[in-house]
Amino acid sequence: MDTVLAGNKPRIGFVGVGWIGKNRLEAVAKENTAEIAAISDPNPAFVEGALGVTPNADVIGSLDEMASADLEGIVIATPSALHAAQSIEALNKGKAVFCQKPLGRTAKEVNDVVQAAQKQDVLLSVDFSYRFTNGIKALKQVLDSGELGTIYGANLVFHNAYGPDKPWYFDPKLAGGGCVMDLGIHLVDLLVWLLDNPEVNEVSSQLFSKAKLLQDINEQVEDYAVAQLLINSSIAVQMACSWNLPAGVDAVIEVSFYGTNGGVAFKNINGSFYDFTTERFYGTSRQTISTPGDSWGGKAAVNWVEELSQNGNKFNSDAFQYVKSAEILDRIYKRG
Ligand SMILES: NC(=O)c1ccc[n+]([C@@H]2O[C@H](COP(=O)([O-])OP(=O)(O)OC[C@H]3O[C@@H](n4cnc5c(N)ncnc54)[C@H](O)[C@@H]3O)[C@@H](O)[C@H]2O)c1
C-alpha cells in the first residue's frame, strides 16, 4: 500500500454529505490536516452544502469512481445499509476508510469489513465519537487506574426523546435495526473499549415497537430496548435505549460503573446531546472530574486523519473491537 509520508496532508474524499457527513467534513476542514479532494452524494442540495465548506473538491458520481480516484482515504456517511459494501469496495482498492456507525448491520457484515481491511493492510476506523469526549476520557482514566476496586455493576443509557427524522431509519433493511443500532451501539462500543474486549457470558433483552414487544426484527425497528449482560463472569450491565421516550428532556445519556471502592458516572447535563459531566462517587459523596465545553463531535474523524498521516495507511488491529460489539448487538437482537 502507498504510505503517506509523515507531515503530508492525506487526500481524502467524502461519500454521503448529509447531516453527519457534512458535520464531519466541517470538522476535518477546520483542522486543515487533510486535503478534501472529492465529495459524492446523489442529493444536489447536499453536494452544494458541502461545496460551501470545501469549494475546490471534485464532485464524483459514485463510490466506485471515488474508490479508483487518486485519494488515500474515504469517509463514508451514507445510510447504514450501504456501509459494509461501500467500505469493502474502498478498502479493496487500498483506500483507508473512516465509516459512520454502524459499520455493518450484523456481526457477519462487520467481520467481512474488518477482514477486508486486515487483508489489504489498510486503516479502518468507525465514528464512535463518544470515546473522544473529555468526560469519557476522564471515566476511562478512573477505570484504568483500578481505583474502583472490583467492578460489579454498570449502567448504560441512551434515550433520544426525538428519534430520527429520516424515513430510512425506520426501514429494518436500510437501518439494520432501531434505537439499539442507532444509539445502543455507542453504549456497547464504550463497554467493549473501556473494559478492553471483555468476555460476554450472558445477554438477555426485550425490544419494543410502539409500546408492544417487537414481533419480527426484519419487519419492524425497535424504539425502546432494555438489555442485561453478564461480563467477565463478574459485572452485571444494565442497558436501556430508546427513540421518542417521554423523558421530560431531549436526551438521557449515562455510562456508569460501580466497584468495591466507589463509582464513576458520565452523564449528559439538562437533557443536552452535547454537554456532559463525569463524577467520581465515594459512598454518598461525589467529586466532579470532568465538566462540559469540549467540542468532541468531529474528533474521531480528525483522529483518523492524524493516524493516516502520522502512521501511514496501515491496518490497526483495534478494529477487531468493532466485530466484538457487533456480536453483542446480534445477541441483543437474538439473531441467528
Ligand atoms: N457517529 C455518530 O454519532 C452518528 C451520528 C449521526 C448519524 N450517524 C450515522 O451516519 C449515517 C448517516 O446518517 P445521517 O443522519 O447523516 O443521514 P442522512 O440521510 O442525512 O445522510 C445520508 C446521506 O447519504 C447520501 N447517500 C445515499 N446514498 C448514497 C450513495 N450511494 N452514495 C453517496 N451518498 C449517498 C444521501 O443523499 C444523504 O445525503 C447513518 O448510518 C447514521 O447511523 C452517526
Describe the secondary structure blueprint for this structure.
Layout: E1 11-15, H1 19-31, E2 35-40, H2 44-53, E3 58-59, H3 63-68, E4 73-76, H4 83-92, E5 96-99, H5 107-120, E6 124-126, H6 134-145, E7 151-160, H7 172-175, H8 179-194, E8 200-209, E9 212-213, E10 224-231, E11 235-243, E12 251-259, E13 262-268, E14 276-282, E15 285-290, H9 299-311, H10 320-332
Parallel strand pairs: 1-2, 1-4, 2-3, 4-5, 5-6, 7-11
Antiparallel strand pairs: 7-12, 8-9, 8-10, 10-11, 12-13, 13-14, 14-15
Helix pairs in contact: 1-2, 1-9, 4-5, 5-10, 8-10
Bound molecules: nicotinamide-adenine-dinucleotide (NAD).
Residues 15-21, 40-43, 46, 63, 77-80, 82, 100-101, 127, 129, 166, 182 line the site of nicotinamide-adenine-dinucleotide.
Q: Could you tell me the mean pLDDT?
A: 96
The CATH class designation of the largest domain is Alpha Beta
Query: What is the chain-wise order of helices and strands?
Result: EHEHEHEHEHEHEHHEEEEEEEEHH
Bound molecules: nicotinamide-adenine-dinucleotide
| CATH topology annotation of the largest domain | Dihydrodipicolinate Reductase, domain 2
| Class inferred from helices and paired strands | alpha/beta
Tally of contiguous helical segments: 10
Within CATH, the superfamily of the largest domain carries the name Dihydrodipicolinate Reductase, domain 2
Tally of structural domains: 2
Taken from the alpha-carbon principal axes, the silhouette is globular
How many angstroms separate the termini? 36 Å
What is the CATH architecture assignment of the largest domain?
A: 2-Layer Sandwich
Largest sheet: 9 strands, mixed
